[in-house]
């Protein structure tokens, strides 16, 4: 519909340009006599009106190219045209002023009717185009709002997934090639104690024994010494038990050598 309105604007521009040139030629008396039309008096008024019509024709032609001005300019030019057509018909047909001959009367009436029809058509088309542009703008704004709402919802879901995927407290993500391990608090009660050696009864430092070279061999020797000490202690305890048993049974004891 907008291309049709552009075509109407071009026609309006040509009509306005023709009228403007016609009024600019007001001093040309022989032309008005040949067309059997009344000459504008004074001439200055006719030429000034012709310049105004040429400027309006230029605006109409520019609006047919510039889409932002098309609807507004078509409405303005349409109103100017149909009002001019009504004015011509009222004065020339109704009031017969100025009094024209047969050819001049026919030309004036036809011109007024054509201008009236083109003006009304331009106004209707301009209103329809403006209404369609308004609806298109509303639809575009609605689509933009829906897109913005969808983007906001997507961002909210993404943030929620990131919060759910985040590690719990006390677990630290890997940084670079090494992962940060949480420190163990060994000062609190109920925490895991260091392992204790069965031979010596002293706590064993796992880091020191594991880090020292030959730690396994040293530990084996320590375990062997512990077993020997345990065997000696068992023998001594057995000897004491046998001595106590003999003392209870009343067997003679060897003489005490002082």
TrEMBL record:
Transmembrane regions: 7-25, 45-64, 76-94, 106-126
Keywords (A to Z) from UniProt: Membrane, Transmembrane, Transmembrane helix
Compositional bias ranges of the Basic and acidic residues kind: 143-164, 219-245
Region (Disordered): 140-258
Lineage: superkingdom: Bacteria
Signal peptide (residue range): none
Naturally occurring in which organism (per UniProt): Paraburkholderia piptadeniae
Annotated protein name in UniProt: Transmembrane protein
């Amino acid at each position: 519909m907008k291309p049709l309105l552009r075509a109407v604007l071009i026609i309006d521009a040509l009509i306005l340009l023709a009228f403007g040139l016609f009024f600019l030629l007001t001093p040309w008396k022989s032309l008005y006599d040949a067309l059997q039309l009344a000459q504008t008096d004074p001439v200055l008024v006719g030429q000034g009106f012709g310049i105004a019509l040429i400027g309006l024709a230029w605006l109409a032609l520019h609006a047919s190219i510039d889409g932002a001005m098309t609807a507004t300019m078509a409405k303005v030019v349409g109103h100017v045209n149909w009002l001019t057509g009504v004015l011509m018909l009222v004065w020339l047909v109704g009031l017969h002023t100025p009094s024209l001959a047969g050819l001049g009367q026919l030309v004036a009436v036809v011109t007024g009717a054509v201008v009236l029809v083109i003006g009304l058509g331009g106004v209707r088309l301009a209103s329809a185009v403006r209404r369609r542009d308004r609806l298109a703008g509303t639809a575009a704004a609605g689509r933009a709002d829906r897109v913005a709402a969808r983007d906001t919802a997507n961002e909210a879901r993404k943030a929620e997934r990131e919060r759910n995927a985040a590690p719990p407290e006390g677990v630290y993500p890997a940084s670079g090639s090494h992962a940060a391990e949480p420190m163990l608090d060994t000062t609190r009660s109920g925490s895991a104690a260091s392992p204790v050696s069965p031979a010596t009864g002293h706590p064993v430092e796992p880091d020191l024994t594991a880090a020292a070279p030959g730690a396994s061999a040293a530990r084996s020797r320590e375990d062997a010494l512990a077993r020997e000490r345990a065997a000696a202690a068992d023998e001594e305890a057995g000897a004491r038990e046998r001595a106590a048993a003999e003392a209870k049974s009343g067997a003679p004891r060897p003489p005490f050598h002082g």
